[in-house]
Each structure stands twice: as structure tokens, then as C-alpha cells.
Amino acid sequence: MTPEEIRIKDKDINAFLEVFDNAKPYDEGSLSGKTIAIKDNLFFEGHKVSAGSKILENFTATYDATAIKKLKDAGAVIIGRTNMDEFAMGSSTENSAFGVTKNPYDTERVAGGSSGGSAAAVGAGLVWAALGSDTGGSIRQPAAFCGVVGLKPTYGRVSRFGLIAMSSSLDQIGPITKTVSDAEAIYNVIKGKDPMDSTTQEFPISNFQFSKKIGVPKDFVESEGVSTEVKENFAQSVEKFRSLGYEIKEIKLEHLKYSLPVYYIIMPAEVSSNLARFDGVRYGLHKDGKDSVDDYFKTRGAGFGAEVRRRIILGTYVLSAGYYDEYYGKAVEARQLITKELRALFQDVDLMLTPTAPSPAWKVEEKSKSPLEVYLEDIFTVHANISGCPAISLPSGFSGKLPLGIELTADLGREDNLFAAGKDFMGE
Amino acid sequence: MDKEKVLNLAKLARIEMGDEEAEKLSHEFDAILDYVGEVKKISTTNNQRPTTNNFPIRNIMRADDNPHESGVYTEKILNEAPAREGNYFKVKKIL
To answer: Of A66, A34, A75, which is closest to residue A183 (Cα–Cα)?
Structure first.
């Protein structure tokens, strides 16, 4: 497709913030000739990168993110940058400063988020694949909403050098693709230890054999607020795995249900620290005030949208004296318990299976009144970021015309199990 | 949480904010904090913490040495600055 053809097809979807006119291969390799779109929070030297925010609207990337450099080296053609919730904060792309991305299956509905543009671009067939980032489900949930595959690799697996940070102990870059094999191909290109991101590490190759054992946390899947069609589709997916020769084991994890409250303490805390860097002095938007301190207030007041302000303030609160132990301290401890419990589970089963989201894509503006209601949509995805474990969302059918997804979570460094089971499920 | 508290937090975070937004946020925060407050119910006293082996988040240190050659990125970086003077970021007078 030419850039113009993509723009025309994207008109009703708004997946792209920019389609590059001069897209070209930089080298030859395993991704030669493949067109890939990138989320607007990844640095691609010489191109704009705005994180969906007014505060970076005219910012140009001064270097290549490691993941982008690796794509270039592998021969991929980076075709454009995709829409996202501002600074990756949201589950619907409605928080983008540049308009909402629509679901390719129903343009009255959202594409999910925060990597909604990336998922919609792949779902609509505008590109071969896309990169997203996932802090609490931002790759997997839009992938589920748009009927495609989304992978969040293990924390430390893919370098975040050149990714605009949201929550540094949770963020991870990953692919959104049509098939599991494509996700694996991109993952193999972008992973690896990088001196520019000291959290990256090599994971030792495990001796454990893949035993086709899947754990299903039944109570958790039947949490309040999970829609009937999601529960039905999930039951069918469990049966499908059974028919493929998988052993399904009912499991109960005591602390799993605390993942979401833990996430909505740790994430805003890190957001409030990370976004302190936007000061209107070194880069990005600048608004003049009466003195240098007032410049900060004016710049940040004008540059940050509603959800970003909400999370910065919430993060400031949970970190402030008198509340730190009660919220942040407690959340950090709970995070370790959840991780310990999940890792113990993976001594017994290879994978954990849940739905990806509690409902299919909602109507644009349907949930704009209540931030908490939108936060609850992350119920099935945040455990993977809390624990660092890798997880993949697979298309699992439809509710009417809307796609649904299931999610597999594996132990740290065990993306291989996700790919094996994912390919079985998808018939690849 | 009340409006004044939100306005004070906004001040700490250096974000200009009006009364109306602060009022709205204060009600939203009540609902959110009520929900995330669930974590207080977790008993962590008798639980062993995971070892660094099975928890991927850890502190990573490196020696603060081997700087790159001075000036190689200066132009690229300053090109993104809202205001510059020579090879410096330009800001208002502090004192």
C-alpha cells in the first residue's frame, strides 16, 4: 500500500498520527519487506514523537530507540506512527490529544488502548505488524478489541531505550500482529540485553519441558463485572485447549485479585516522578509565566491532558508524607506477594489462562464519565506487569461483530511457552 | 479528599489547575482511593518476601565513568529546546 492509500483507508479509523512519505528499508534481514507501524512513544530518529500529548506535539526524536534500530537492521520498513492514549495512560485511545482511534470492526466503538492505533492499524490490514508498549495491558487489550495478537514480553527482555517512559518498573515494548508466528518473529528481533537499558537481562534457557498444562483461576475469571459473552467465549476457549490435548487445571491464587489496586498505586506513583521531566525548558511545549517557577505551572497546566493530570496528582498523593506507607509501601509489598504466588504457580503449570478484557470494545465516550470504571477494564492484564511475567492475547472469537481475546501468562523468560500454546490455539 | 487538598497536590506537582477541575478530581479520588485501599487488607507480616532470584525488579548500578566525547549531541539536543542562548538552555532569571 502506498502512504496515500493507507491515509485514505485510515480516514474513518484514525490509527495513524502520521504515515511517512519516505518509508524505506535500511538493511536486509529476517523482516525484509515487512511494513511495521510504531506507537507514537518510540523514538525513530528524525521523526516526530509526541506520546499522544500536546506537551510533545512538535518534538522530534534525536536518536533511534533500540527496538527501532533492531527493526531497521532486520530490514523492516517503518511506515508511520500510531495514535495512543496520552503518555500511554488509558484503555481506549480516547485520552489522545489528537482524537480517538476507532475500532476497525465497528467505527462507533473504541479500538482499546493505550496502543489502540497500533492494534487498529494491524486489525484493519493497513500494515503487516506494529509495535506497542504495555504498562498494564496496553498491547494486549487493544489487540483483543481489534481481533489481533498482542505480546507483552518479560520485563527486562526488550530494551526500553528510546521509549518515552510512563511507569519504569512496568513498561515493556512488544509486537501486535495477525499471527503468533509473526509476533515471535518480531520478538526475536527486538529482544536482548542492551547497555543503554540496564534493566535488560538474558534469561537462562530453562530445562523444563513444555507439558501442555494450563491453570485457570476460575474465581478470578468470574469476577464481578465480567460480561456474559466474555465468560461464554472463555469457556469455549478452555474446551478448545482441552481438545488440543492440553490439561486444564483449576487454580486459586489468593493475592491475584489485589493486582489491580496494586497497579493503580505503583503506576501513578512512577508516573508522577517520570513526568516531572516535562518542564518547558529542555524540550517540548513552553508556556510563559510571570517567573521561572510560574513557567512550569503554565507549561504543565497547558500541556498535560485530563487523565495525565489525574494520575500525576494521584501519584503525588500516594507518595506524600503521611500516606506513603499506607499506599505505596503496602503496594510494593503486595506486589512481591503476587509475584511470588504467580511464580510458584508456574512450577506446577506452564501457563495461566484468563480472558484479556472483561468486555468487548465499548462505544466511544460510553465510559468517559467514570475514570474508575475504565481502570477496572485492566483487571485481567495488570498481573503480568506487576510480576514482570510475559503474556499474550490471542483472538478467540466474536461477540456479534466485536472481537474477543483470551490471554496466556507464562513464567519469567518463558515466551516460548506462550508461542507454543498460542500457535496450537490459532492452528498455526 | 477535598478540593483544597487537590489544589495543594497540584501545586506540589507544578500543574496549574482551576477550582472546577480540583472539585471534580476530589470526588473521583474518593472512589479510586477507596478501591486501591483494598491493598491495606493484605497481611504481609507472616509472608516471606521473594528472593531477588524470582523477582525481576532490582536495583542496577554502574560506575559513573567513560563519558562520551563532549559536545557530540549538543546541537541535536539544543535544537529541541524552546529557547537557547549559545550552547545553553535559556531560562528566566532565578534571583
So the answer is: A34
What DSSP designation does A204 have?
P
Nearest to A296 among B14, B55, B79 (CB): B14
**Phi, psi (deg, nearest 5) at residue A54:** -65, -30
pLDDT of residue A320: 93
Q: What is the pLDDT of residue A19?
A: 98
Amino acid identity of A122? V
Q: Across the interface, which of A255, A297, A317 has its CB nearest the CB of B16?
A: A297
Distance, in Å, from the CA atom of A345 to the CA atom of A108, rounded to the nearest integer, reads: 40
Q: Decide if A70 contacts A190 (C-beta within 8 A).
A: yes
CA A323, CA A55: separation in Å to the nearest integer? 30
Cell digits of residue A419: 508461542
pTM across the whole model: 0.96
Identified catalytic residue from A50, A92, A96, A114: A114
**pLDDT at residue A387 in the model:** 96
pLDDT band at B95 (very low <50, low <70, confident <90, very high): confident
Containing H/E element for A106? strand A106-110
CB A56 within 8 A of CB A49: yes
Domain of residue A372, residue span = 1-428
Contacts of B13 in chain A (CB under 8 A): 272, 276, 300, 312-313, 316
Query: Which stretches of chain A drop beneath a pLDDT of 70?
Result: 206-207
CATH number of the domain residue A143 falls in: 3.90.1300.10
pLDDT digits (tens, 9 = 90+) for A115-169: 999 999 999 999 999 999 999 999 999 999 999 999 999 999 999 999 999 999 9
Half-sphere CA count of B61, side-chain side, radius 13 A: 1
CA–CA gap between residue A370 and residue A368 (Å, rounded): 6
In whole angstroms, give the CA distance from residue A289 to residue A295.
Answer: 4
* Domain count for chain A: 1
